[in-house]
């Protein structure tokens, strides 16, 4: 099911909409994560004549390997998107300005439907984590419980990696007074 916003079906004021789509329907792919369940989108649309303000929340589950233990793990994500949609005639300068702004879209007055799939896909992609699971506040993996490695001091790094030993032998001269 496409996430179609039928503009003429929306009443003046607030409107609540919900969509469920698969990752394939959204053309959503990632080399590190899979999307094992449907992607749910809730959108509040506030209509004032031919102006539509959209506030959307997209929730889904991602699956991938735990970055610590490499076990298969799933994590939920929640992403937001906002859009001001205006149905009116616009000059080329206005269209260019709206495109640069990024959250304003001006459509032809005859437009009856707007497909939200690109906005939903973009919101999910921008909120994907670098890795899963995301460590908790204490620095532990919430899946396997392994703690993050503590930061090494400079001396520990030199001792841990012998390639840096030659740099430790460099002596720097002290600057002369008055220069």
What fraction, in percent, of the residue positions are helical? 10-25%
Shape: elongated
Q: Kindly report how far apart the N and C termini lie.
A: 74 Å
Counting DSSP H or I runs of 4 or more residues, the number of helices is 4
Structural class: alpha+beta
Over all CA atoms, what is the radius of gyration? 25 Å
Tally of extended strands? Answer: 7
Structure description:
The chain has a domain at 4-126. Helices cover 17% and strands 34% of the residues. It contains four helices and seven strands. The protein has a five-stranded mixed sheet. It has a two-stranded antiparallel sheet with strand order 1-7. 17% of the residues are buried. The mean pLDDT is 83.
């Amino acid at each position: 099911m496409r996430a179609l916003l039928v503009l003429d079906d929306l009443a003046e004021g607030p409107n609540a909409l919900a969509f469920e789509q698969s990752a394939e329907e959204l053309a959503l792919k990632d080399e590190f994560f899979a999307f094992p369940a449907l992607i749910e989108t809730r959108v509040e649309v506030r209509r004032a004549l031919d102006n539509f303000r959209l506030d959307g929340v997209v929730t889904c589950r991602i699956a991938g390997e735990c970055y610590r233990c490499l076990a298969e793990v799933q994590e939920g994500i929640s992403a937001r998107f906002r859009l001001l949609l205006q149905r009116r005639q616009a000059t080329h300068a206005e269209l260019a300005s709206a495109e640069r702004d990024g959250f304003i879209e001006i459509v032809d007055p005859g437009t009856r439907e707007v497909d939200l799939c690109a906005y939903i896909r973009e919101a999910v992609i921008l909120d994907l984590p670098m890795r899963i699971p995301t460590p908790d506040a204490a620095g532990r993996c919430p899946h396997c419980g392994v703690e993050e490695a503590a930061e090494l001091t400079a001396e520990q790094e030199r001792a841990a990696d012998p390639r840096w030993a030659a740099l430790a032998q460099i002596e720097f001269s002290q600057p002369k007074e008055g220069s």
